[in-house]
Amino acid sequence: MTILCLGLNHRTTPLAHREAFAIEGEAAREALIQLTAHPSIDEAAVLSTCNRTEWYLAASDASAAMGLLRDFFQARTGFSASQLQRYLYVWQGRDAVDHLVRVACGLDSMVLGEPQILGQVRDAYEMGLEVHAIGPQLAELFRTAIQTGKRARTETPISRNAVSIGSVVMRWVDGHAALSQSKRLAIVGAGEMGSLVAKHAAGLSDARIRIYNRTLARAQALADRVQATAHPLSQLPDGLSWADAVIVAAGGDGFLITPAMTPRRARPLILVDLSVPRAIDPAVASLPHVELFVLDDIQEIVQHNLEERQAAIPQVEVMVAEAADGYMAWLGSRQVLPVLVGMRRKANDLARAELEQALRKLPHDDTIVADQMTRLAHRLVNKLLHEPTLQLKAQAARGNAEPYARAIQDLFALEDYLLRK
Asked: Which of 163, 213, 234, 375 could disulfide-link 219, Cβ–Cβ 3.0 to 4.6 Å?
């Protein structure tokens, strides 16, 4: 039995093609059921996110399982074999185990240490259990990955502090002393950056959000997604009076916010300019009760936070290696257990038969002698099997379970003993 991972991610495949491989919901459940119905695949799970689609298999025939999955990809996506060859990566055995644990820890994410992937790994595990596609091998693998992902985030800074501009802005705004009581946020721009900022703003407790944009319909579409209100750009002066913080992520000719349109007020006004070229006149920083921050200020925080996360990578890699070692040892012991049991059964049967024959040849019944001979036979079996048992378990932990187990099975002719219950 081999653990396999076939997949693609943001590093290997452009978004337009990743979308073709994405699978979720009922389609994913049906695919798992179909794949595990094939004799070469014992267990299966699929992890499908916006940045990756990965299939994990416990396969009795690795070559046949990979061929079956590639056929499934071709039928689902219409891609040629050469395209699949270009985009797909394949991990086997220990490499597949390492990969899933690294994914769960956030080491393989587009944003280092991002927290969402751990929940997505858990969702993949639960879906596999739901349709009975996951058995003991993948169940233990996913549990190991999830536990290690939790440990990495608890014991290291791999997921601490925001490392995207949108999340940094909102975390900084949320923690600003001037906003301890009120969180009225105006977001100017409904493009990519404005949408990211709005998404993170929606996660703040007790925040009231307004979206301002040149095209009101686009502002409304974004507002509907984040439970905000939409307003035309012409109403921005009113927004400056209403808001506690204004985040501008919209370009154009000239400044959108100038000193002349900035109200005189007693309470603080936080202005954040994420636009290139700048959309807020730098002169507003001289106004009383106004704090102005520009993209470079935010980038500096992002870089500092990212450096903290990167510093945690070696520590997390040690956790990954420990977890993978533990899983491979568990998997190996599971694979060699039938052989170890069969070897001990045969040895005990042989010892018992020889003991009975020897006892029958004693001139008279002597319970003391019989007891000592029984103990001797038992000790001999244990001593003879002790070293082979240790060596077989050690080889299994190194990933060599199958060839060594097969060799012992053949050398000791254990076939009949492996079939016995």
From this structure: 213
